[in-house]
C-alpha cells in the first residue's frame, strides 16, 4: 500500500535518504526506527507529498505520489507529532471541519462513530481541543484519518511526549486500524512499543535501511531489539561520519 523504491532525497549539501526501499502492505504496521537525523521525518514527508524525492519512486495504493500527489493524498492520512487542530473548536467540530475541507460532510452519528473508533472518550467529543491532552489530540487526528476513509496512515513520532498509558492506548488503536486493513507507517523512538505494535520494524541510519525485522523474528527468537539497534547505530557512526554528505560543487 505504501511503497518506496530506491528513493534518494538530497537537501543542499546533505543526502538525507540514500536509496531507500520500503514497503508497507495493507493491514500492516511498519515501525521506522533510527537516531535523530536518520531521515525518518524526511521519509514520512515524502510519502505525504510534502517533499519531492531527488530520485526514486513513491507509491501509495499504487498511485505515483510524485506524479499525482493529490490523488495519492486522497487515500492517505497524516498524523504529525503535534497534530495541528483548532484549539477553540471541540474535538467533534475539528473532525467535521477537516472532513469538510477534504470534501466530506459528516453526519453527527458518523462523527461520533469515528471519534469512538479512534478511542476518544465520549465526554470529550464536545469539549474544546484547548483542554485536551496530547494523547487526545492524536486521537482526533486518527478520527480525521478514519473519516477520510484513508487506505494508509503515516505517523511521525506519535508517542513522543505521551505517558505510558496514553502511548499504550494509541498503540492499540493503531493495531485496530491495521486490522481493519489500513497500512500504517510510523516513525518512532519507542523500541519497546515498536516491538509490540509493529509487524515489521526497520532501522534507518544515515538515510539507509540498515536492518529490517519481522515481529515474529523479534518475538519468537527473543531478539534483543535494543542491543541490535545500538550495535548497528554505533557501527554506522564509525563507518560513515562523512560518507553521506554530498560533495559540494562550489568547493
Ligand atoms: P529524523 O526525522 O530521522 O530525525 P530528518 O528526516 O528530520 O531525520 O532529517 C534527516 C537529515 O536531513 C538530518 O541530517 C537533517 O538535518 C537533514 N534535514 C532535514 N530537513 C532539512 C532541510 N529542510 N534542509 C536541510 N537539511 C535537512
Ligand atoms: Mg523526525
Sequence-ordered SSE layout with sheet pairings:
Blueprint: E1 2-11, E2 14-24, E3 29-33, H1 40-47, E4 55-60, E5 63-64, H2 69-74, E6 76-79, H3 91-101, H4 108-117, H5 134-147, E7 152-156, H6 164-179, E8 183-187, H7 191-197, E9 200-205, E10 208-214, H8 215-220, H9 225-239
The structure holds adenosine-5'-diphosphate and magnesium ion.
Overview of the molecule:
- The chain has 251 residues and is of the alpha/beta class.
- It folds into two domains: 2-75 and 152-250, P-loop containing nucleotide triphosphate hydrolases (Rossmann fold, 3-Layer(aba) Sandwich), CATH 3.40.50.300; 85-150.
- 37% of the residues lie in helices and 24% in strands.
- It contains nine helices and ten strands.
- The protein has helices at residues 40-47, 69-74, 91-101, 108-117, 134-147, 164-179, 191-197, 215-220, 225-239, and strands spanning 2-11, 14-24, 29-33, 55-60, 63-64, 76-79, 152-156, 183-187, 200-205, 208-214.
- Strand 4 (55-60) and strand 5 (63-64) form a beta hairpin.
- Helix 3 (91-101) runs parallel beside helix 5 (134-147), helix 4 (108-117) packs across helix 5 (134-147) and helix 5 runs parallel beside helix 6.
- The longest helix has 16 residues, at 164-179.
- The structure holds adenosine-5'-diphosphate and magnesium ion.
- Magnesium ion (MG) is lined by residues 40-41.
- Magnesium ion is lined by residues 40-41.
Structural category: alpha/beta
What is the H/E string? Answer: EEEHEEHEHHHEHEHEEHH
> How many distinct helices?
9
Low-confidence stretches: 241-251
List the quaternary state of the chains: single chain
CATH architecture tag of the largest domain: 3-Layer(aba) Sandwich
Q: What is the CATH C-level name of the largest domain?
A: Alpha Beta
Listed once per kind, the bound small molecules are: adenosine-5'-diphosphate, magnesium ion
Shape: globular
The CATH homologous superfamily of the largest domain is termed P-loop containing nucleotide triphosphate hydrolases
Distance between the termini: 42 Å
Mean pLDDT: 89
Strand order of the largest sheet: 6-7-8-3-9-10
Biggest sheet character = 6 strands, mixed
Q: What is the count of structural domains? A: 2
Q: Approximately how much beta-strand content do the residues carry?
A: 15-25%
Number of strands: 10
Radius of gyration, whole Å: 19 Å
Residue share in helix = 25-40%
CATH topology of the largest domain: Rossmann fold
